[in-house]
Structures are given as C-alpha cells and as structure tokens.
Amino acid sequence: MSRYIIDVPRLHVAGPIAAGREIALDRQQGNYLLNVLRLGAGASILIFNGRDGEWLADIRLPSRKTAALSPREMTRAQTAASDLRFLFAPLKHARLDYMVQKAVEMGVSRLMPVLTRRTQVARLNLERMQANAVEAAEQCGILSLPEIAEPAPLERLLAQWPADVRLIFCDEDEAVADPVKAIRAAGLSKDAPLAVLIGPEGGFDEGERRAIKALPQALPISLGPRILRADTAAVAALAVVQAAVGDWRGEV
User: Both 88 and 55 in a single domain?
Assistant: First the structure.
C-alpha cells in the first residue's frame, strides 16, 4: 500500500515505530483521540515519526487514565524529503501560523526565519512553529517534518551561503515576467538543493536587495504585478517553484 489513506485519522509520534512495539501516548494526544475524535479501544489510526514511515496502529487503553498505540502494519515506507528551504521574515501570531502550515503543505524541508532591517518581529516561539508544522504534516499526509532553524540575520546567512544551493529571491521590484519560465531557464535540477527567500512587510531595503543580488547563487524572480502580503507571497512562491522544478512536475 503506497497511497495516503485519507479517511483515517493521522497522528505524529516522537518515538520509534515497529510492529508490536507499543507506543505510550501523552495526556494531550490521548485526549485528542479519545475525547475530541471520540475513538475507543481497537480503533485504527495512522501514525508517523518522520523516520520509520507511516503505520496503521490500533488504540489500546491500558488503564482508565492512559492510552497507547499498537503498530500493526506499515502503509507507506519512509521517503527522503526534498531539499527545499524557505527563508522568511517572521510575522505576528496568526499570520506566522498560517505561513508555517502552508509552507509545510507545499513541501518545505527547512524553515529558516530571517531577520532583516524591516522585520517587525524579532522573537519567535519555535515550539509554536513546531506544533503548527506537526499539525500541517498530520493533516496533509506528509511523512517528514521540516527542520526549524533559529532566527538569523540576513547578512550572516548571505555571508555563509552554501555554494551548491540556488537561492530564488522573490523581489517585488523585479521586472514582471513569467516566474516559472525564469526558473526553468536557469537549468535547475529537480533533485538539487534549493531555497526560496521572501521579504518582510515593506520589503527589503536597497542595501539588502543589492547584497542578495550580488550572491552568485541568487535567482531574482517576480511574483506578478501585484504587491502580495508576506504570507500570500509564501504560498505563491512555493507554488511557482513546485510547478517549475519541484514535485508538481512528476517524473520529467
């Protein structure tokens, strides 16, 4: 069985998964399964941990106050995540939650908060970002969770940028053209590491734009004639990348 079973609840677990190896659930997970979803002993759910593939597991109730899972069979083998990094200036609360969830749904493997001169939020709740990433992965069938990096200044990231990673720079001042064609014309490989950078509310300042464009690995693109909010730009940019050189293209 290789396709995601869409009508079965899905849960991320931290520990190893193997047939017959019981997995104890914490109180929050037990409450979610038993009281929110109203599942009982013997009900089946899908579980994954980002390492051991996806499994069908049965709910067990060792006592009145505890719940556990008994993995029964693997439904999908673990696959390697694509090396797609997403660099973004942090946003406030609900808009950041949305951005993280959509980036995970769009196949990002590493979330990299970037501090720019116009960034409005300097402190991030990384645990909240992780929780949003887990929720998105649970809901959309993803097998791997993205890494979440500590916030870093843009200047430092550019100075340390790896030579083998192309950086797609979403520049609101770039001449409007077909971004899919621009990315494909760059000759990027589907399996090569790739990063996408979007700016903060108000955009990058001129010094930052010059520094980004001076990076040999940078590929500036436009996201169309309209100025997009940062969370909208995230979805648009990642959709363009997946359509141009990502897993939306299939085997080509």
Answer: no
